[in-house]
Amino acid sequence: MVGSSLDKGLWSITRHPNYFGEILIWIGLYITGFSLVITDSIQVFFYLGMIISPLVMSTVLIKVSTPLLEAHMAKYAGWADYTKRVPMIFPGLKK
After folding, report:
1. Would you call 82 exposed, middle or buried from its count of C-beta atoms within 10 A (0-12, 13-18, 19+)?
2. How far apart are CA 42 and CA 51, in angstroms?
3. Euclidean distance between CA atoms 72 and 62, whole angstroms
4. Alpha helices in the chain (DSSP H)
5. Which residue of 19, 44, 47, 49 shows the fewest CB atoms closer than 10 Å?
6. Other beta carbons less than 10 A from residue 20's beta carbon
7. Distance in angstroms (rounded) separating the CA atoms of residues 93 and 86
8. How far is it, in rounded angstroms, from Cα 85 to Cα 81?
9. pLDDT per position as a tens digit, 6-54
10. In angstroms, rounded to a whole number, what is the distance separating the alpha carbons of residues 42 and 72?
11. What is the largest CA-CA distance in the chain?
């Protein structure tokens, strides 16, 4: 059974707060790196890497890791009700 601890803290607003946090970290790294582009302190090759990295990591987390974890968790009692109440990754987004 999905425990009541999932109704508290970050677990009450997103089913995968760790993935949400990692996506935010990648976006933050991109924003930080963008400031280097403005000051001409970085080459275009590295800037392309800064664009591609957050996109690839976010896609892998959203399209690969999360569905695998969701499928694994589906066997637990109460998971279906939990998925109806709480968005998958991004807080505030409904199905």
Report:
1. middle
2. 13
3. 15
4. 17-38, 44-60, 66-73, 79-85
5. 44
6. 19
7. 9
8. 7
9. 778 899 999 999 999 999 998 888 887 777 766 666 677 777 787 888 8
10. 43
11. 54
